[in-house]
Specification:
The protein is an alpha/beta fold. The protein has one domain: Aldolase class I (TIM Barrel, Alpha-Beta Barrel), CATH 3.20.20.70. It has twelve helices and eight strands. Strands 1-2-3-4-5-6-7-8 form an eight-stranded parallel β-barrel, surrounded by five helices. Helix 1 links the parallel strand 1 and strand 2. The relative contact order is 0.17.
């Protein structure tokens, strides 16, 4: 698959880190360090409380603001929940759905992840749909079967005209926040599998247009090798996205791959 048909995306997932008062200084430092690449879309997925400050701090920059989750519901008596419409009203562009931590700690299922992705799309935003296996599943040789099921379930309600606005992030659960990472070849094999699944079910044109990210402890040290793989179009970055210099180094790896 030719990468020219899709965009490179480096998305930071801050998780439950930083304070709203720290956003401005972070954004200023990142803007100063940001490589001058036109081929990479940069996203920061922040806690809900940080989004207004982040949008103000990133005004007139090339960095998009994202959220880390959303409610399945449009509105109503759902204390503590945040709807897709609320995020859209804050000019959020991307929303992570189905992160392994949401699945593990909040009981999200493959089908509820798909429903959330639909809600994101219906409100004019793009979902970053996370899939990935546990260490036990990998050791038992079930990685491809499990990721295939997750992918098909998450995309089952999304029509073709909306599918091209989706992003898929492969995040091996055993490599999240552990310092471990899949080898570039291991990551490529799963990302290629995801693209093949989409091609088989939805056709080659859609398959080649969807950006697939790697989300397992990508860093400045391994980013270039991972991003050089034919089916890895970017990264969903955890810890390194909290350090402007480290995050900028990963973005710079995209420029090296594309020859900018």
């Amino acid at each position: 698959m030719n990468k020219k048909y899709r965009k490179a995306i480096i998305a930071g997932n801050w998780k439950m880190n930083l304070l709203p008062s720290e956003v401005k200084s972070f954004a200023e430092e990142l803007r100063h360090l940001l490589p001058k690449t036109k081929t990479c879309e940069v996203v920061l997925c922040a806690p809900y409380t940080h989004i207004p400050n982040l949008r103000r701090s990133l005004k007139d920059s090339r960095i998009y603001v994202g959220a880390q989750d959303l409610s399945l519901h449009d509105k109503g008596a759902f204390t503590g929940e945040i709807s897709a419409a609320m995020l859209d009203d804050l000019s959020v562009h991307y929303v992570i759905v189905g992160h392994s931590e949401r699945r593990q700690y909040h009981g999200e299922t493959d089908f509820s992840v798909g429903d959330k992705a639909v809600a994101v799309l219906e409100n004019g935003m793009s979902p970053i749909i996370c899939v990935g296996e546990s260490l036990e599943q990998r050791e038992r040789g079930l990685t491809m079967e499990y990721v295939r099921y997750q992918t098909l379930a998450a995309l089952s309600k999304i029509p073709d005209d909306k599918l091209r606005h989706c992003v898929i992030a492969y995040e091996p659960i055993w490599a999240i926040g552990t310092g471990k990472t899949a080898s570039a070849q291991q990551a490529q094999e799963v990302c290629e599998c995801i693209r093949r699944i989409i091609r088989e079910r939805r056709g080659a044109r859609l398959a080649r247009s969807i950006s697939i990210l790697y989300g397992g402890s990508m860093s400045g040290k391994n980013a270039l090798e991972l991003l050089s793989m034919p089916d890895i179009d970017g990264g969903l970055i955890g810890g390194a996205s909290l350090k402007p210099a480290d995050f900028a180094q990963i973005i710079d790896a995209v420029a090296q791959v594309t020859g900018e």
